[in-house]
Amino acid sequence: MIRILSAILLLASIALFTACPQRTTIANLNSDPGRYYKKEVLVYGVVTNSFGALGQGAYELSDETGKIWVVTQRGVPAKGAQVGAIGEFIDGVRWGGRTFGSAIRETDRKFRRN
Hints:
Blueprint: H1 2-19, E1 22-23, H2 26-31, H3 33-36, E2 40-53, E3 56-63, E4 66-72, E5 82-95, E6 98-111
Parallel strand pairs: 1-2, 4-6
Antiparallel strand pairs: 2-3, 2-5, 3-4, 5-6
């Protein structure tokens, strides 16, 4: 019985840790974009700018190391919100006639509680 529980715990731990995106800083993304390109990342920061329409949009996320745009298919968070953006790191993003360079294509979002 203990072997079965141990095996289940081990498999659950592996699944949990492989499903978590790599947490990084905006400076790391910008200084070595090839390392993160098309990989899922997690960046925490404060929303400094945002715009959207019809549930789509983009918001600028700032941490202590820099700023990056996050494009989303959901509504954008309010300016000043502390969020964790989870998504694919991409390059050459165009939205609404604007080019943003490197960005994160959001797949999920976490809100930080103060």
